[in-house]
Amino acid sequence: MPSLRVGDIxxxxxxxxxxxxxxxxxxxxxxxxxxDEGSRQAAAFHVATLLVVSSLRPAPKPDGKPKGDxxxxxxxxxxxxRRLLH
Length: 86
Hints:
The protein has no helices and 5 strands. The chain has strands spanning 9-12, 19-24, 29-36, 39-46, 50-54. The termini are far apart.
C-alpha cells in the first residue's frame, strides 16, 4: 500500500482523474478532491485502491539522502529562475 501525505496526487487503480489527497483517516481511508468540468468533487477512498502519481516528498539522491539535504556542502547551489510577467 502506498504511503500518502496531504497534498500528494493520486489516481484510482482502475483509472480516472488525478486527485489531491486532502486528508487521511483511520481505517485506511483517504479524503481526495478533484475537479470535473470546473466543479469541485470530493470522496473518500481506501488507500489500497489508490496509486501515487506525484508526491511532495523529495526524491532520494543516489547517496540515499533526500534532495535538498544540506549535509553535502560540495554540491553547487540550486538556483530557481523566475519569469517576470509584463
